[in-house]
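Quick one, tokens below. Sequence please?
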């Protein structure tokens, strides 16, 4: 029996999940029509029945309501196995599903939300991950529209049973709105944007305590949307009117700055296929052999100009969600910083490159050794240091950007940012990522102006670091830093053209 579920090329092997569902359906198809058997199925029969009903729902739209009634009558595990199979279909098969099966997939997901199925949060997250950033094809926009409509329609049910999944939806739609507002308006896209805005604003106004759980990256996403009137009002309230959010827990935006964003949110903007390819590159490909893998990845996922914004999501994923073990770090496998360097070079638009650099440095700005992971900040410093011999322009560009952020990201809270950046440097030395800060301040290739800025950061701001961190800073050759400061002062006036 040929599959009615997925589209396959002649040379492609059949997917095991698709085969499993189809065979289960073929085995007991006669039992899927009324009147249904009244016997109690064995555990194996129960699983096959679930598989067969799922295949029937996806491939027989005209009988979907019959199949779902059959499922309701037989269920004994809170829909756990059925939802698990649905999630596997989304993760492994979604791009290849025929269009009618995709429509049915959304329909049955809505049904599972209504019955509070076990595992519905994982299913919804899996569907959110299938929406591709920077993709304006009809199918991708359709999925986005269907999911935001589902979250709005099932608001009360989700709020009662799975409130945390609403934060995943908020993160996703905030990120997608930034892309959607860059595209020329058309009627379909305008409707979608209004739905996304409606959902996000409702989250902020009615469930800010949930929004707060996203952490500092909520601010990063919001800053891309301040040109939209509805979000401009949210931004003003975040800064000046915290009482508008009707929660005593929120008093100032610095609370968000100092709240680390969980790695699960960064996975939301990376499809399972992208994740598999990136983890393979960063786990099995040696430095020097990566070009063909990078070229394949670029052709597959970054070939259209609009897809460039994906680079921002990938950089954030690599920094915060892919932390290789020591055996990989100490091997010949291509390091994270090298992949990020390639990604930055692939950015053709200035605003995408700026956002990618912000993604690279974001945890630096608010780094707190008690909460943050040194692995989140490691790629940036290693890219800076390893670029010195051959690509000093990369080193200069990254250091300039970091100092630009320190000066301008939030002028009213520069003390928090300065403390965060200095704490990041101290932790990098303490953990041995950098053997010494001298590698930067005593490097002849780095411009005197930037060395002067580094010296001021390391020595002039040491008072802002906690007493616990000061010994680390003192261990970083402050006498040499001061000597370098004097040298830089003598030469900086004649070298400002380097900035």
């Amino acid at each position: 029996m040929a599959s009615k579920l997925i589209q396959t090329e002649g040379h492609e092997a059949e997917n095991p999940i698709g085969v499993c569902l189809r065979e289960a359906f073929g085995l007991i198809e006669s039992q899927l029509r009324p009147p249904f058997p009244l016997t109690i199925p064995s555990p194996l029969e129960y699983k096959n029945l679930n598989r067969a009903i799922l295949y029937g729902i996806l491939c027989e739209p005209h009988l979907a309501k019959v199949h779902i009634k059959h499922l309701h009558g037989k269920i004994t595990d809170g829909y756990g196995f059925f939802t698990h199979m649905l999630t596997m279909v989304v993760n492994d098969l979604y791009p290849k599903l025929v269009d009618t099966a995709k429509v049915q997939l959304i329909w049955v997901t809505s049904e599972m939300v209504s019955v509070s199925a076990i595992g519905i949060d994982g299913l919804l997250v899996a569907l959110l991950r299938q929406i591709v950033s920077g993709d304006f094809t009809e199918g991708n926009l359709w999925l986005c529209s269907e999911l935001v409509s589902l979250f709005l329609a099932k608001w009360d049910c989700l709020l009662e049973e799975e409130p945390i999944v609403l934060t995943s939806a908020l993160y996703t739609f905030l990120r997608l709105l930034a892309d959607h507002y860059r595209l020329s308006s058309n009627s379909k896209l305008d409707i979608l944007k209004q739905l996304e805005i409606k959902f996000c604003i409702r989250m902020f106004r009615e469930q800010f305590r949930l929004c707060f759980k996203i952490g500092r990256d909520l601010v990063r996403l919001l800053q891309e949307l301040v040109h939209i009137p509805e979000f401009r009002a949210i931004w003003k309230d975040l800064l000046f009117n915290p009482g508008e959010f009707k929660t005593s827990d929120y008093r100032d935006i610095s609370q968000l700055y100092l709240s680390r964003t969980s790695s699960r949110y960064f996975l939301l903007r990376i499809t399972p296929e992208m994740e598999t390819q990136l983890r393979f590159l960063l786990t099995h490909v040696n430095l020097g052999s990566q070009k063909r893998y990078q070229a394949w990845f670029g052709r597959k996922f970054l070939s259209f100009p609009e897809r460039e914004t994906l680079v921002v999501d990938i950089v954030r994923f690599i920094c915060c969600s892919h932390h290789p073990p020591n055996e990989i770090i100490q091997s010949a496998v291509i390091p994270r910083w090298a992949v990020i360097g390639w990604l930055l070079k692939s950015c053709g638009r200035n605003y995408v490159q700026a956002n990618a650099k912000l993604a690279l440095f974001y945890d630096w700005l608010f780094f707190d050794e008690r909460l943050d992971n040194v692995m989140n900040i490691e790629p940036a410093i290693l890219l800076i240091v390893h670029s010195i011999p051959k690509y000093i322009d990369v080193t200069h560009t990254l250091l300039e950007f970091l100092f630009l952020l320190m000066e301008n990201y939030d002028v009213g809270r520069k003390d928090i940012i300065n403390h965060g950046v200095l704490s990041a440097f101290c932790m990098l030395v303490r953990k041995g990522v950098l053997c010494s800060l001298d590698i930067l301040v005593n490097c002849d290739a780095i411009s005197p102006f930037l060395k002067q800025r580094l010296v001021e950061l390391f020595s002039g701001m040491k008072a802002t670091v906690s007493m616990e961190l000061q010994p680390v800073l003192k261990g970083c050759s402050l006498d040499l830093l001061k000597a370098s400061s004097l040298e830089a002062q003598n030469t900086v006036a004649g070298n400002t053209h380097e900035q």
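Residues 463-499 have pLDDT under 50 and may be disordered. The chain is about 65% helix and 0% strand.
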